[in-house]
Amino acid sequence: MKHQALVAAALLGALSLAQAQSVSYTIEPTHTFVTYEIAHFGTSTNRGRFDKKEGTVQLDRQAKTGRVDISFELASVNTGVPAMDKHLLNKDFFDAEKYPKARFVGEQFSFDGDKVTAVAGQLTLRDQTHPVTLTAQRFNCYRHPMFMKTVCGGDFEATIDRTLWGIDYGIKWGFPKDVKLVIQVEAVQQ
Fold first, then answer.
1. Among 123, 136, 125, which Cα is nearest to 184's?
2. Which are the contacts of 154, defined by CB distance < 8 A and separation ≥ 6?
3. Along the 190 residues of the chain, how does pLDDT read in single tens digits?
4. Which is it for strands 53-60 and 33-40: parallel, antiparallel or unpaired?
5. Can you say how many angstroms the Cα of residue 184 is from the centroid of all Cα atoms in its chain?
6. How far is CA 129 from CA 104, 105, 140, 162, 187, in A?
7. CA–CA separation, 158 vs 121, rounded Å?
């Protein structure tokens, strides 16, 4: 009986130690951007970004687990061309009045050592949710000299088929359905 109590105590101690390794982060909005790129008639690339975003990250680098939850306001789209921004907000594209936010939630992290290499999750846009895997182009954690806290982040990207979310404007004219989505994120330890 005494042996079982010691084993139980050791297991509880190990469990609490493992739970203590999960760290919470809040995205730092001046170093976090959600952008997209789409080819324009095979000649140039149209780009835009969403200026209003928020989110959190849970990361356990030892257990190689995590969770990311980032949302962005579609009405904050910024292409640098006001007329294009206005068109993107209507029913041809985002239908932002009806669907004001998009959200990515990822709970399957891939690692190489202690570096995140990919995050698989779900992207919700226009009230439709589909799987998306973001591949890390860079990942790093560092001690921020101004915040005096650990900051983790990187550039994560995926190519998505926009028609899955009901965005098929221009397909019949030759606009591609594939859109490159890039989420550049830095998150501050809480």
1. 136
2. 116, 136, 137, 138, 139, 140, 184, 185
3. 554 544 444 444 444 444 558 999 999 999 999 999 999 988 999 999 999 999 999 999 999 999 999 999 999 999 999 999 999 999 999 999 999 999 999 999 999 998 999 999 999 999 999 999 999 999 999 999 999 999 999 999 999 999 999 999 999 998 999 999 999 999 999 9
4. unpaired
5. 8
6. 9, 10, 29, 12, 24
7. 11
Give pairs for 95-100: CB < 8 Å, separation 24+. 95/126, 98/126, 99/74, 99/125, 99/126, 99/127, 100/73, 100/74, 100/75
pTM, two decimal places: 0.86
First to last CA, the chain: 41
What whole-number distance in Å separates Cα of residue 40 and Cα of residue 31?
28
Structure-token pair, residue 65: 């687990």
The structural domains of the chain, ordered by start, are: 22-189 (2.40.128.110)
